[in-house]
Task: inverse folding
């Protein structure tokens, strides 16, 4: 199966849903845009051989669903030859990455036989360098087969912990029952020996991990404010990875935030932002990792101004810290500004179709509609398409580009300044019609855009953000139809 991510932005996970194995692979490793999830690259601990980067974010993906050889001809090299032939078609397929899952296509009841088949498949795949993509001049392409990881080393935990986790039908951490103010329980526990605070559960999670994963701001704030030797234990827990997920408390918190957003969008088609308390937990953990521990009294737990500012900046998914109003990412702004300017240029080519103040004929309107985005203007206005109407519509695109090219402007109807005598607006046209055109054209041309800016220095200098391709979020924040 071939997947061109440039043609399916926002829908990468949806197109794999009919293939259970492929969908499970996609959901575990990629987000809805086809980008490798940050938990695999943000910290060196999770990089395996230490060479994973952002190379997997771009390019065509070929997922080999199965290689079938009839029993009489198995173990004769036919399967390997088929795979080799496919790999030699890399340029024909314009593919950057091939993925295979080493699994028997037939059901085998004997565990030992299944393991032997998988081991044989892994050996075969390694002959074709399936652990890396060797043609890229990146660290990922420099390691040899022998340097690659040899097994499923997903976490650092004892064999007892791994066995316990594998057999347990319960979630990684127990569901708490808040029948009393939990902070008072922790305070009363403060008289216990400090070593008791160092205890971990059967999966290696500390109290701070569990509070962070549940986004319990009260408990997190209190744990970080405990004094003396307990503070040293909590300080160590901030960097503790000896659990089944290999995550620090901050990583556990942020992982859950991303998972909740992904699940909500997939289920309901929209997302209203991160919970404020969850972001406050992330803020406190981030500050604590830098050495700042807050003072806290359970009788007075109002959030600080810094916490509120962090929530405002990140509630709508900003991960770069540079999004305007927390949702319009610098790369999205750059993309939309270029699209609005391109629309202005495209409309200039249609000026020759007009004859003074006379409205266009039906055929003329259809010709213009294909090139200047009239599909976003109500059809009742099409009979009013004169040269002045066309020029007014074009002026709106120029005004949108002007706002987007400013440092902090939001291109909504209130900030896009257009002359009151604009014929497009006087006939019933609206700024929202042009905004919808800009966004929809940007979505349609996303693949071509990604290729065109591949070597652009201005684009490369802009920070990456989880909102870079959130066109639906932009539509919603601008008051447009989110679909």
Result:
């Amino acid at each position: 199966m071939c997947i061109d991510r440039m043609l399916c932005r926002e829908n990468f996970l949806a197109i794999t849903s009919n293939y259970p194995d492929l969908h499970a692979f996609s959901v575990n490793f990629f987000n809805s845009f086809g980008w490798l999830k940050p938990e695999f690259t943000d910290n060196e601990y999770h990089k395996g051989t230490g060479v994973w980067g952002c190379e997997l974010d771009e390019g065509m993906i070929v997922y080999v669903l199965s290689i079938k050889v009839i029993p009489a001809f198995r173990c004769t090299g036919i399967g390997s030859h088929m795979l080799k032939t496919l790999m030699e078609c890399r340029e024909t397929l314009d593919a950057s990455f091939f993925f295979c899952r080493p699994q028997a296509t037939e059901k085998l009841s004997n565990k030992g036989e299944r393991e032997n088949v998988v081991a044989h498949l892994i050996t075969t795949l390694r002959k074709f360098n399936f652990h890396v993509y060797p043609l890229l001049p990146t660290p990922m392409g420099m390691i040899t087969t022998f340097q690659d990881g040899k097994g499923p080393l997903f976490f650092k935990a004892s064999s007892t912990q791994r066995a316990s986790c594998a057999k347990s039908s319960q979630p990684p951490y127990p569901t708490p029952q808040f029948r009393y103010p939990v902070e008072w329980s922790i305070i009363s526990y403060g008289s216990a020996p400090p070593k008791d605070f160092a205890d971990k559960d059967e999966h290696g999670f500390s109290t701070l991990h569990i509070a962070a994963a549940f986004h319990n701001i009260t408990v997190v704030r209190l744990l970080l404010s405990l004094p003396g030797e307990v503070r040293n234990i909590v300080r160590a827990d901030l960097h503790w990875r000896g659990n089944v997920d290999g995550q620090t408390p901050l990583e556990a918190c942020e992982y859950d935030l991303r998972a909740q957003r992904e699940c909500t969008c997939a289920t309901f088609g929209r997302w209203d932002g991160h919970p404020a308390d969850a972001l406050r937990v992330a803020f406190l953990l981030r500050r604590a990792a830098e050495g700042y521990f807050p003072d806290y009294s359970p009788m007075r737990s109002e959030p600080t101004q810094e916490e509120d500012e962090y929530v405002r900046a990140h509630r709508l998914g900003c991960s770069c810290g540079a999004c305007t109003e927390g949702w319009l990412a610098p790369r999205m702004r750059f993309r939309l500004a270029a699209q609005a300017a391109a629309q202005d240029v495209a409309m200039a080519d249609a000026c020759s179709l007009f004859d003074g103040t006379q409205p266009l004929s039906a055929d003329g309107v259809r010709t213009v509609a294909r090139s200047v985005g009239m599909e976003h203007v109500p059809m009742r206005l099409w009979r009013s398409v004169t040269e002045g109407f066309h020029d007014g519509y074009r002026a709106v695109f120029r005004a949108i580009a002007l706002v987007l090219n400013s440092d902090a402007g939001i291109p909504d109807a209130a900030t896009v300044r257009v002359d009151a005598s604009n014929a497009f607006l006087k006939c019933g046209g609206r700024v929202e019609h042009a905004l919808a055109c800009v966004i929809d054209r940007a979505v349609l041309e996303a693949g071509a855009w990604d290729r065109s800016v591949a070597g652009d220095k201005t684009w490369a200098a802009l920070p990456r953000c989880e909102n870079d391709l959130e066109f639906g979020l932009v539509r919603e924040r601008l008051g447009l139809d989110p679909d």
